[in-house]
Design brief:
The chain has helices spanning 5-14, 25-48, 61-71, 74-83, 92-98, 101-111, 258-264, and strands at 16-19, 115-117, 122-126, 153-159, 170-172, 185-187, 190-192, 205-207, 214-218, 223-225, 234-243. It is an alpha+beta fold.
Length: 277
């Protein structure tokens, strides 16, 4: 699915774009199933060790991790949260999302056919009222090495559940992609930008996105996520792409094919999409 002329113009001119109904359930369901299985495995291990009082087996994907986290002892709670957090989830389901034609068609439209799945990616399980998942204003470029400062990156924020603002969805500052890469410093658990350092003319836009939709930003677009004030978990992915011939700003090795993915991550198995490109 290509962007319309108006959508592409907004993305290039304002540095962000919400695209609704881009990914169907068949793309996201295998990855969600992997997260559900990983949480269940961890929960059963902690329950057997006496560190978790209930398994909450009947709770849906949107709430089970939050219920488990609330019932677990402190160390066990962190272990549960980390199942869905970070860049360690290198699986067949993740590869299928990363290589789905709906995303790649848009990336090709923006940067051309020489596409690299950027090594900086994350899955995020944003728990209710969880300080560690409130991310301050920042530019993604602020987390990368300066050799990639001129590399155009197409960044996707992809919710795995409906993400209205009250679940801790994203806010962006339109036009901030034209700013230079700003100096980031530690704010709480993350490197970020202080709100008082923003230009007076900065305008904040809320970006709620339902499951199946995506938020597109650029690597210098200033953005943040707010607190999750619901009882649900806001599950999401951060994926980004760039021209494979350009610096990535990261030293990590990168999979450029299904075969390379299996070579780099041999335990991550057999369910790769045969139609992935």
């Amino acid at each position: 699915m290509a962007l319309s002329e108006a959508q592409l113009a907004q993305y290039m001119d304002e540095g962000y774009l919400v695209v609704e109904d881009l990914l169907n359930a068949s793309v996201l369901s295998p990855l969600i199933g992997e997260f559900e299985a990983a949480i269940d495995t961890k929960a059963r291990a902690l329950h057997a060790a006496g560190q978790l009082s209930q398994l909450h087996e009947d709770a849906p994907f949107e709430t089970r991790l939050a219920l488990l986290y609330a019932d677990a002892e402190a160390e066990a709670a962190q272990a549960l949260w980390h199942v869905g957090q970070g860049k360690h989830h290198k699986t067949a389901g993740m590869f299928a999302v990363w290589t789905c034609p709906a995303l790649l068609d848009i990336v090709e439209q923006v940067i051309g056919p020489e596409i690299l799945a950027h090594p900086q990616f994350n899955s995020r399980a944003k728990l209710p009222d969880h300080e560690q998942t409130v991310v301050p204003w920042h530019q993604d470029m602020g987390y990368l090495q300066p050799d990639a400062d001129d590399t155009f990156m197409v960044n996707f924020w992809i919710p795995l559940v409906d993400a209205p603002m009250e679940t801790g969805a994203m806010q962006v500052i339109p036009g901030s992609h034209r700013w230079q890469t700003l100096s980031h410093e530690r704010i709480g658990f993350y490197d970020g930008l202080h709100e008082e350092d923003m230009p007076d003319y900065a305008r904040v836009v809320n970006c709620p996105v339902d499951k199946g939709g995506v938020l597109m930003i650029q690597s210098r677009t200033v953005h943040r996520s707010v607190v999750n004030s619901t009882e649900r978990v806001r599950w999401s992915l951060d994926l980004r792409y760039c021209d494979r011939r350009k610096p990535t700003g990261r030293p990590d090795r990168v999979a450029q094919s299904a075969q390379d993915w299996l070579h780099l991550f041999p335990g991550d198995s057999a369910r790769l999409d045969p139609h992935a490109r």
